[in-house]
Amino acid sequence: MSDLSDLYQEVILDHNRRPRNFGVLAGATRHARGFNPLCGDKLVLYLKIDGDRIADVSFEGSGCAISKASASLMTDAIKGGTVADASALFERFHQMVTTPIDRPVDEASVGKLAVLAGVREFPARVKCASLAWHTLKAALAGADQPVKTE
Ligand code: ZN
Predict the structure, then answer these.
(1) Which residues line ion ligand 1, judged by CB < 5 Å?
(2) What pLDDT digit, counting tens, does each position of 10-38 carry?
(3) Rounded to the nearest whole angstrom, what is the distance from the C-alpha of residue 149 to the centroid of ligand 1?
(4) Which domains does the chain have, with CATH numbers?
């Protein structure tokens, strides 16, 4: 493994051990559930939308290190930003994790989320990394149905 992937690994493990924005959000205006049956990852995402801004965000749930770290990194990345920014970041993140492993990805366009670029090597892990994002999309759309990655 290169030094860079070691560093990325560290960030993922850190977010798994100490997830940011973890727990029920008081005053949430939206929430959505996500489930990845392939791995057993489950999460509930809470949003507090104020106008066009994501004033606050949190999540709770259980799952593998990748799913938890991805949800933690995502909440950090979208908190305080606009709904439009979050949707745009979803697109860039999705683009990154679905780019074939032999093609370069634009890591700069996703900021800290670049630590998850390595999941491209493991198609099953892409679902773990994407779960929080699909759940975010559902929460923003106000969908009632739980999100499934299958
Ligand atoms: Zn998983």
Answers:
(1) 39, 41, 64, 67, 128
(2) 999 999 999 999 999 999 999 999 999 99
(3) 11
(4) 3-145 (3.90.1010.10)
